[in-house]
Amino acid sequence: MLVRARIMGRAMKKSNSIEPELQLTERPNIPPGSHPVEIDDYQIPTNEIMKIFKSVSRWIQLRITGAVIYGRPRLGKTWMIKYLKNKIPTHLGVDLPIHHIVSLHAKIAKEEEFIESLLSDMDHAFALAGKVGAKRQRLLKFLEQQGCTNSLRMVVLFIDEAQCLDSLHFEWLMDYYNKLDLLRVTLVVFLVGQPQLYTQKTIYSRGHEDQIIQRFMIEEHKFNGLKNEMDIKSCLISFDERSEYPKDSGWSFTRYYFPEAFTVGERLQNFSKDIHDLYVELRTKYNIKGPFEIPMKHMIIAIKIIFVDHGMNSDKPLHWVTTKHWKEAILKTNYIASEQRKQFQK
Hints:
CATH topology of the largest domain: Rossmann fold
Largest sheet: 5 strands, parallel
Shape: globular
Mean pLDDT: 90
Number of helices: 15
Strand order of the largest sheet: 3-4-5-2-6
Order of helices and strands: EHHEHEHHEHEHHEHEHHHHHH
Low-confidence stretches: 9-24
CATH class of the largest domain: Alpha Beta
Radius of gyration: 22 Å
Structural class: alpha/beta
Number of strands: 7
């Protein structure tokens, strides 16, 4: 059974002091290729994710029934949803049912398909059984049961790529919302997607479709990537100090891949300025315009390359990496081509 990596939220001492409990001991024996870094089974609390974590927690406490969270592709919105889904119930002290809906798309023209997608993404065992009326009742009963099992009487849906939804989809969601409301269960819908989603909200407001705005688009948050050196450093600190695998082992991701360097005080976070400067240099060299913003996807892949290609699991492990290795890793992430393609599309 897969054991998820632990991301620790507690503050730790500065990394340049070598603590006795961090002296090199026996490295965990993990089957090759199964570390969370290698199978992408972990969540990292970046500065931006922590901002939205505070906002979403507050919205839930205030019983805000819907919000728009938007940003351009690859910034880490799906990472954000995974983190929020995992952490918010503990933070609120409520066993709150939170579902990540990923299968809704613009081509869904029948309510039956819409319901099937919702039930499937909520891991319902009988998502496809029966006719549309039975499926609708099954969905409502499932949401009612989940809502009644927590003190908030609430169910939360994070709908990914929500810019694909149209007015008909929202009508169905409003119908479910209203029926659950009569049962004293609150359906909360957080719409997560690309900038078109914010434009969609504007169009609905001008078209006087207040019923959509007042239920599912009450609040809004623009989701950003890594915008400065401090954002990069916060991300790197998570790998140095706030990660742990196996659970309760004391072995952060950086320590696992570079145990000897970690013991003498080396940390990824010490490269934050170098990495920021490398991105600035590459953006200038390849004539990439616009505000500085590094998609989380590219940063995560660069870190993975550093660990997998140069850490203890590699064929020729290094004691520690250099700025040159970081530049090579950044270039391997396809960041330049991705940014150039984005500019061309404009």
